[in-house]
Design brief:
- The radius of gyration is 28 Å and the shape is globular.
- Helices cover 40% and strands 18% of the residues.
- Helix 16 packs across helix 18 (461-467).
- The chain is α/β, with parallel strands linked by helices.
Length: 563
């Protein structure tokens, strides 16, 4: 069947991304919305190398007349190149939308041949553009959120429309709008439960360009999840992509109650200040299936955090990580920005010390990364870098391929080379810290709390890498099913680790010293004898033996086999 609009989200090395990050929820929402008004769009997500063949095929086979591209900071140059190439041979109308669209204007339109730029939310302008181009209804000048060359010469900018306030009135994204029918078919999906952000972080695009918060009702969100569950029995994890999901405690509690009934895992991004203010939220979230969470750390320096307008302190971040650890969260992620506002050797030293502290208190849970500062369009720092102690380096900004992977600004104290050296130092010392802390991890670090009956999922790659270097921890990770972790007299205890040194009264296993009965019990935990038999053979009272095995299991030195 012919259709009007092909929407594409393209990147380099797309296959390396998780499937739920390639689902293009925003474009699927646009497709579902215009379908209610008689138009049809298909959504494609993939690698730039495959894009031309896909586009040409849809033009030839389905007579597609309109092409829409998602543009972000990392793909805008690539998309411009593709548009320029397509315009040489194809008679199609092309527009772009997405976060980077706000940064584009006359130069982009003239250099690429792109016909329109849609700024802001895409549902209304996309529909009105199709009405105008396809049905001859209305004038381009009356379509809000649009930029184009009037008479192919001068840039024409229309006013911005008011944001969509009632998100419950929007249709759900549909799998049939996916070009290859693969939308939300995997075990993990993404979902948006709201739009906008009330915070004003100086480095953040969302905070600078979309401050009006609009939230879907929890009933509406759950109805969408239920529909996905009906059509996808493999569904296990729901990733919430909202910037401000934890904004309102009662709404979070309502969501948790509903998710617990559905027996699904879920993930979200959370604001440190909200978690710090409402410590009772975390246990409730984890009990309902919260598997992983990301928080905005950015820096361990109070001076830098103040400049970012984060409304957090290093101490607040530390306390929230402690809360997450106590509550039994499986996985917590955060980034440190290298080379941000007023960055100095002193602030980076503070950040590195702070990161090491978080690794210590968040053993087995927290995963930290470093990124270079990225000057996103429209943010206070990008507009006035000098006010934040930063110096633009135009030649660097023009030559980057991927944001946050290379420095593009230097600070008043630190040069580009200084920042590169600092990031290398930061990463190297974190790697060492993970290994040192990983060696002393216990069962509670490796197997965090999960609701009864749910499988253990492993997301902690930095910790797994560290544990794999320690023999008993590497083996322990292969034996974390419930039956192998429950002590019983009739089971066979199996020892883990490598005996490194032995004497008359003590042994050393992977640098752990065991003496007395602990050494004896560990040695005889060889799968030949049950706990009961070991008790009789060595005359160890059952209660004492149970206590010894509890501690050995906690130290990841034994597990228990039925056979």
């Amino acid at each position: 069947m012919d259709y009007e609009l092909l929407l594409l989200n393209l990147s380099r090395n797309a296959k390396a991304q998780a499937s739920y990050f390639r689902e293009c929820i925003g474009q699927h929402l646009i497709a579902a919305y215009i379908a209610e008004h008689g138009f049809c769009a298909k959504v494609y997500s993939g690698d730039i190398l495959d894009a031309e063949q896909v586009i040409l095929s849809e033009i030839k086979v389905h007579h597609v007349k309109y092409i829409g591209f998602y543009v972000g900071a990392d793909n805008v140059v690539m998309i411009g190149n593709l548009i320029r190439h397509l315009k040489k041979s194809q008679d199609v109308t092309i527009w772009v939308g997405g976060p980077e669209a706000a940064a584009l204007g006359e130069s982009f339109l003239k250099s690429t041949g792109c016909d329109f730029i849609i700024v802001g939310e895409g549902e209304y302008p996309t529909l009105n553009l199709l009405y105008c181009l396809e049905d001859g209804i209305g004038k381009l000048e009356d379509i809000n959120n649009l930029r184009f060359l009037k008479n192919n010469q001068n840039l024409y900018i229309t006013p911005l429309d008011a944001p969509i306030m009632d998100l419950d009135q929007l249709p759900y994204p549909k799998s049939e709008d996916s070009l290859h029918k693969n939308f939300r078919k995997e075990s993990t999906i993404g979902i948006l439960t709201g739009r906008g952000c009330p915070y004003h972080c100086a480095f953040c695009y969302e905070g600078a360009n979309s401050k009006v918060v609009r939230l879907r009702s929890i009933e509406n969100v759950m109805d969408e999840i239920d529909q996905v569950m009906i059509n996808n029995p493999k569904l296990k994890v729901v990733n919430i992509f909202d910037d401000t999901f934890t904004l309102y405690k009662e709404r979070v509690f309502s969501f948790c109650r509903e998710m617990k009934q559905r027996n699904l895992f879920w993930t979200c991004e959370a604001h440190v200040a909200r978690l710090h203010k409402n410590p009772d939220m975390l246990p409730y979230m984890i009990d309902s299936g919260l598997l992983a969470m990301q928080i905005g750390i950015e820096s361990g320096s109070a001076h830098v955090l103040d400049a970012y307008q984060k409304q957090t302190t290093p101490e607040m971040i530390t306390e929230v990580v402690q809360q997450c650890k106590r509550a039994g969260l499986q996985h917590l992620e955060g980034n440190y920005i290298i080379g941000g506002a007023f960055e100095t050797n002193k602030t980076l030293t503070e950040s590195l010390s702070h990161a090491k502290e978080l690794i210590h208190i968040g053993r087995g849970m927290i995963e930290l990364h470093t990124v270079f500062f990225a000057p996103y369009y429209g943010t206070p720092i990008t507009k006035n870098p000098e006010m934040f102690g930063m110096v633009p380096m135009c030649n660097y900004a023009e030559n980057i391929i991927t944001t946050m992977h290379e420095p593009v600004l230097q600070t008043q104290e630190l040069s580009i080379n200084d920042l590169i050296q600092w990031k290398n130092k930061f990463d190297q010392e974190l790697q060492i810290c993970y290994f040192e802390q990983g060696k002393s991890c216990y069962k509670s670090d490796i197997v965090q709390k999960l609701s009864i009956g749910k499988e253990i999922k492993r997301l902690n790659s930095r910790w797994i890498e560290a544990w794999n270097k320690v023999p008993h921890l590497r083996e322990f990770m292969q034996h974390t099913v419930v039956s192998e972790q429950v002590y019983a007299d009739e089971k066979y205890p199996i020892r883990l680790g490598i005996l490194q040194k032995s004497s008359k009264d003590k042994i050393i296993v992977d640098e752990i010293v065991l003496d007395g009965l602990f050494a004896t019990v560990w040695l005889w935990s060889n799968g030949r004898y049950t706990v009961q038999q070991i008790s009789r053979m060595h005359g160890i009272p059952p209660k004492i033996l149970a206590s010894i095995y509890t501690e050995l299991n906690y130290k990841c030195l034994v597990y228990f086999s039925v056979f």
